[in-house]
Automatic annotation (TrEMBL):
GO terms for biological process: glutathione metabolic process. CDD domains: GST_C_Sigma_like (cd03192). It holds the Pfam family GST_C_3. InterPro entries: Glutathione-S-Trfase_C-like, Glutathione-S-Trfase_C_sf, Glutathione_S-Trfase_N, GST_C, GST_superfamily, Thioredoxin-like_sf. GO terms for molecular function: glutathione transferase activity. Residues 1-90 form the GST N-terminal domain. This is Glutathione S-transferase. Residues 96-240 form the GST C-terminal domain.
Length: 244
């Protein structure tokens, strides 16, 4: 039985959070919407789930994971499920619950990063909401990025294991989530993140350490890692980074 991940095939998006857990664990998985010619594959295969044609609960939106009879949706919940199943999560119940809260918070930050370029409406184009996006971006850069990253920094500093990781003494799925959000923010807000890297060295060091983890380094160098783009959640619009 394989682990089948379903997500839009042309962007990293929120699918990247569970994908990184699968890659870091060296899991045998299928990225179904990127597989044409495989039963249940391609975007059509994904849409069959979304339309309730596969005998599973119907997720609101991708990503979702199918593991045999089980369907798990919501990027943070999938990451937690995979982390706990594949050995990239704390072993104890309090640690697991705490890690889930961290993943949900990373999901909140991801949503806020998205809403910078879509502050008025998800179904409108960026070009239809540029003045509002400019206002939102300033607040996001000056207030929200420091608030979120300062919180992660504090978690790293106060982790009783003093490991440089967010929880416990080894890499977990929440570190992979923080890496992804830091990478996305660095793509979308390079000026703001250069400053954040100076203010929050523990976060920067954690992200660099994840990047150098052998299975992640292999993955990032592979064609399976799609580039960031202005179609995704994190978008490089220089005007939103306080630039021209
Ligand atoms: N909170 C959900 C959000 C899922 C989500 O918004 N997925 C996007 C792609 S990243 C989508 O396809 N949304 C369709 C829609 O909202 O109509 C998660 O983290 O998985």
């Amino acid at each position: 039985m394989s682990l089948d991940l379903y997500y839009w095939p042309s962007i990293q998006g929120r699918g990247e959070f569970p994908r990184l857990v699968l890659e870091a664990a060296g899991a045998d998985y299928r990225d179904m919407a990127r597989l044409d010619g495989v039963e249940g594959g391609g975007v059509e295969g994904m849409m069959a789930f979304m339309e309730g044609k596969r005998g599973h609960p119907v997720p609101f939106a991708p990503p979702f994971l199918v593991d045999g009879d089980l369907l798990v949706s919501q990027s943070a919940a999938i990451s937690a499920y995979l982390g706990e199943t594949l050995g990239l999560a704390p072993d104890d119940r309090p640690g697991r619950e705490w890690a889930r809260a961290l993943a949900a918070t990373t999901s909140d930050l991801t949503a806020e990063a998205h809403d910078v370029h879509h502050p008025v409406g998800v179904s409108l184009y960026y070009e239809e909401q540029k003045p509002e996006a400019l206002r939102r971006a300033k607040e996001f850069r000056e207030q929200r990025i420091p608030k979120f990253l300062g919180w992660y920094e504090r978690l790293i500093e106060t982790n009783p294991a003093r490991s440089g990781w967010l929880v416990g003494n080894r890499l977990s799925y929440v570190d992979l989530g923080l890496f992804q959000v830091a990478a996305g923010l660095a793509y979308a807000f390079p000026r703001a993140m250069a400053e954040a890297d100076r203010r929050f060295p523990g976060v920067a060091a954690l992200a660099a350490r994840v990047r150098e983890t052998p299975l992640i380094a292999d993955y990032l160098a592979s064609p399976r890692r799609l580039p960031f783009s202005t179609e995704g959640i994190f978008r490089a619009y220089p005007e939103l980074d306080g630039g021209a």
